[in-house]
Structures are given as C-alpha cells and as structure tokens.
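Holo prediction. Input below; ligand is alpha-D-galactopyranose.
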Amino acid sequence: MTDSNKNGIFFRDGIFTLQTKNSTYQMKADKFGFLLHLYYGRKMFGNADFLPHQGDRGFSPNPYDAGSDRTYSLDFLPLEFPVRGVGDFRSPAFDVKYADSSWGLDLRYKSYKISDGKYSLSGLPAVYSEKASDEAQTLEIILEDDVAKIQAKLLYGILPKLDIITRSVEVTNLGEETFTIEKLQAASLDFVAGNYDFIKFYGRHAMERNAERTPITHCAQVISSRRGTSSHQYSPVMIVCKNDATENSGSVWGLNFAYSGGFKGEAEKDQFNSTRIQLGLQDEMLSYPLHKGEKFVSPEVIMTYSNNGIGQVSRNFHKCIAKNICRGKYRDEIRPVLLNSWEANYFNISKDSILKLAKDASELGIEMLVMDDGWFGKRDDDNSGLGDWIINEKKIGCSLKELVEKVNETGLKFGIWFEPEMINEDSDLYRAHPDWALNFKGRKPVRGRNQLVLDYSRPEVVEAIFEQMCKVLDSANVEYVKWDFNRSINDVYSYAENVENQGKVLYDFVKGTYSLAEKLTSRYPNILFEGCSGGGGRFDAGMMFYTPQIWCSDNTDAIDRTRIQYGTSFAFPASTVGSHVSIVPNHQTGRVCPMKTRGVVAMAGTFGYELDLAKITSEEKEEIREQVKSYKKYANLIKNGDYYRLTNPFTDETASWAFVAEDKSEALVSSVQLEMHGNMTPLYVPIFGLENGAVYRDEESGNLYPADVLEELGLPITEPMLHFKAYQWHLVKA
Ligand code: GLA
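Structure of the complex:
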C-alpha cells in the first residue's frame, strides 16, 4: 500500500492529496506558482493533473509569466482559490480594495505544512476532533502576493472516517498599507466537466428550508442572506450533485457553512462548461480593513462527498455535526422531554400558570418546564422590556429562585428564555445606553417586531448582557436556556468610537454573539442551550457549536413540519432539531391532525410539548403519557441511529423516514399520510438502509419482512387509511 492509498494528507510529485475513506481531493501549484484545483470526488489513486485543459482562446488573457504562450490562461484553469486581477473573470473567492480604491491580487504558492489534529479558529466555530482515532489532520498552504504584501493561508482539515474535509482561510497584511477585504469565500470548487444539479433550501419565517433542485446552467445561481443572520430565507448549505444522482446513488457534494451571519453561495457553469461552486461570507456589506500585521479569519465550510447519493451526504453531515461540531454534556446525552410555555400562555405567565403547567406535565412523564418570553422587565407584549433581564416579580408573583424551587418540587427541571442581542426602546437599558443599539447616524431606526439590535461588535455591550444573564442564571437552578433572535439586522451602523470602518460591523457582530455563547457555555457547562431565531432563522452549524439543539421552526403544524424537517435533514442531524407537539387546531395553520401524527413528527427531533395541558381531554393526556414512554424507548435510536429519507413530502403521498441502528439490528420507520382520496390506492413505504439479505420482524404485528423487498417495493400500509394519519413500525432484525 502506498502512502496515497491510506487515509490522510500527502504531498508527492508536487501534488497535494487529501484522502478520506471514500473521497479524494487534489490540488497542485503549477510552474508559475498558481494553485490549481485538480479533483474532488470519488476515491481514486494516482494523479488527476491531466485534467486542466489549455488552448488559445479569445478574450482569455495570459499572465505575463506565460510569455508568448497564449494557451495558458487563468480564465479557464480550475483554481483552488480564485482572485480578481490575474485574468480569471469568473467569480472570485477573495477580493480586496487598496487605499486608492484599486483592486487586483496575484497570489502565488509559497509553502505548506501538514500536521496531525484538526485546526481550530479563534473566536469562530469549527469542526473539532478530540480523539486520535479520528485520524484528523490539517494542511496549511501559504499563498502570497509579493507586490501587495498579502498572505492567504488556506486551511484544510480532514476527518477521514466521516469523509469530511473542511476549509477556511486566514488573510494577513504583511505590508505597511491598509487594505480592505471585500470578499472572502472559504470554499471554491471548480469542476472542469460534467452536468450538475444544485439543491438549495429556501423559505420564510415559519416555513423554512424547502428543498429545491435545479440544474446548474450558464448563469449564476446565488443563495444568500443579507440579514446579518443565516436566515429563514436560505440555509447556508449547498448540495451539488451529478444530474443523474438520486437519494441512494450517484456523486454528491455537500457544503455546509459553519457561520451564523450573512453568507453567499454561488453556482455557475462557465463559457467552457466548467462549473464553479463557492460558499462563504456575504460580500455585500463586508468591507473589512486590515492594517499592518493584522489577520482576518474566514469562517469554515464543512464539505463532504459521497458516490452513494444524497442520503449518504446527509448522514456524513449528521455524524460530523452531532459529534464534531456540537459540544458539551448534552452532545452525548438524551435531552429531557420538555414542555414550553409559549403556545400555552404566550406573554400571559405567572407563578400560578407556570406551576400548573409543571404539575400537569409531571403527571405525564415530561421532564422539564421551559418558561418562555414574558418573565422579565416590563414585558406583557412584544413592545417593551428586551434588554432588562431581571425577573418581573410583580408580574410573576415571586422570585425566580422560589419559582424554580417549586417547579423542581414537581419533579421537573426548569428552563428559561432569553433574547440576548435585542433591545426595546422602551427598556431601562436603552434609556441608559441608546448608542448601544445599531442605528444609522441621524436616522430613525428601522424596527422589527418593534425592537432594535444591540451592537455586539462592541465587547462592552456583550459583557453587560453577559453580566445580566449570569445574575439570573446564578440566582436559581436553571438547567436550560432558549436563546432567541427575533428580527433581521437592518441598520448596520455602530456608534463605537474605534470603528473606523462600518464594513466591519456585521462580521464583528457575529463574533460578539459567539463570544457571549462561549462565555456562557463554559461558565454553565451543565445548562442545555437551545438556539432559536423566530424558529429556524439561525439554524446553522455555527450556532450548533454552542447550542446542540435549535428550535427548528415557529410552525408547529405537523404536516408543514414534515416538509420543514425533511429540508432540514439534508444537512443537520435530528439531535439538533427542536420539535414539539402542539394543540389543534394548530396556531399557525388552523389544521387539525391526530395526536399520534403530532407525536410521530416531533419524534424526528428533540422531543417536547408546547400546549396548555389543561385544555386537552383526559384521553389525549393518556395518549401523551404513552407518547413520552414511546419516545424514551426510541430516544437512543433516534439520536444515534442513521437517518434515511424514504420519500419526498413535497411530491409523494407520504412523508416517510427511518432511523436505522448503526449495526442495522433495528429501525424505527415513520410515515405520515399526506394524501387521501376516495377508493384510495394502496400505499407502500419504501425502506432503505436495512441490511440486505436480512429479514426484519415488525415488533407490534410480528410480521416478517425481507429487507430487500422493503427496499424494492416497500411496506404496505394495512391499517385503515386517513388523511394526515401517522404510522410507525419498529423493525427488529429477525
Ligand atoms: C420567537 C420564538 C418562539 C417564542 C417567541 C417569544 O418567535 O421562535 O418560540 O419564543 O419568540 O417571543
């Protein structure tokens, strides 16, 4: 076995090779020092440096080094880290502006370093490895512009067993003159040939992450967020596949940006039919000055490849995020079944209402009560109070300590809601520090949910909120925090004295959020943090570094949730998906569907409830008691099993999915019927992921099913069918 047959990072014959279990990534610095991208795809042995093509092509300029060779042009060569200014007219990954407002970069290869372990990024989330058995390695490649005195250090991390390759870039000003970074994409991939599709996840508040697949053609397709957060509107995730790839077959690449601010993803087929894919920071509203000696670090893109279809790319992401992004005690622990007060009481909360919920919940086996919005400052609706994180004892009727003690006496843990980056004008904090809110100078602010955004690019603002939160968290036995963020950022203007360039603010804001998250999670390692942004407006791998679960959507309607959770599953594991059973008619859609359906759908995530238990019948209560028991029975399989999408709820008659144990000994298959018609045609649920050749027994009926038949034709639904009804089978290898 030669070096390059093993997993790891190798440099041989001038070629860098990154080998993971099932994929290979290759690049090389050519004779002029330009770093060419050679290959990323199914595992191969040997070199792919025969791929880049040459030719004398009109309007494709030639770098001076090429002399009279008109066949060498960066306009069509596959490039590892494309920049503006060397004759490549495709989209650059990196762009700067100099003091005289000119631009242009010429980065050439200088050196490399390979080391064991996975790099980390200061102040930013990043994939980590804590075990030598991960075989993680890091490659650093240094490129420099000798005239502009700019260094780009390209960082690559590999987790070979998970087929994960990460990318980030660190830019350093080696010169005397200040320049500004105008664009920095951590990942750029050039494919010299082939026809590809792009799967993206678009949406809106309460309807996040709808999957849409389109061919990549001769025009740029862009997904992005200009909202200062990763957003409800597009997820910072790109799945790119050969146009014949399916859920279970074919070549698929996944790119997942571990960042919670604005982003941009681009896909374009160029004039010569090569395809460029990029993902990284949003370049609009980014203009980041770097003075002599300063560094700027790009957040990381997590990449994975599979030639076994889209489903496998998802499972690679799931494993990486669950174990190598999520941190803390709750990374590995089954999360408590919670009851959240929001849809039960909204702002109308008090000691009595919270204790009533806790008491009712404890009788049903629920393990934690979360007091949502409305407990602090002057907060009877969403027009005031944000920024004043002090319990309103008058409204609640007692201190937080007393309330939590009483909740604990019912046998439940206690959790609480915060919205740390926000401020209402009607708050003591705003009255004391109006300049702590982002707001264009001389203009009235643009309000969202009648609130403004605190200027987290200022460390003193982050510190002040941290201190307020610590006082609350230190005063009582709080075991869970829901961290919300309920508007998009509009007024990107900081009043901080040291901001000489407002183009820094959005990036520094996100780093401010991360600094607060780091301080809180290290000071309170036993608290379970759940992210939220009006549901899933900040549902990204960046936040998951701090909050191992995130409220997936404000939409609790089980039918809509099958689609939202389907889209979410392409890049994120069920263990990160906050999902609750709520009341019917549903508060967002008015739809009525059975309790079982609501339970089965919520079980495809971190399970909980969000309803007033006093408003349901004793039969429904009994159903909840059974549901909690059943969730607990399957919780380990749901958290640690492999996830398979069995149907597409946007086009199929059912939404069906399965959690399959890693050793394939058992599977929990769930299906929700989305269509019902007169004289209904029979429905079969196709089941993938079981062990071929094996036979499985349905635990409830005792029926035996050969795995291969389930995969080829499916499991028939034999119960009487009904619109929105859910079916669940626990299959155990016979
Ligand atoms: C957001 C969240 C909800 C709830 C409310 C409280 O909309 O997504 O779950 O916490 O805020 O105001």
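The two ends are 39 Å apart (CA to CA). That is the main takeaway for now.
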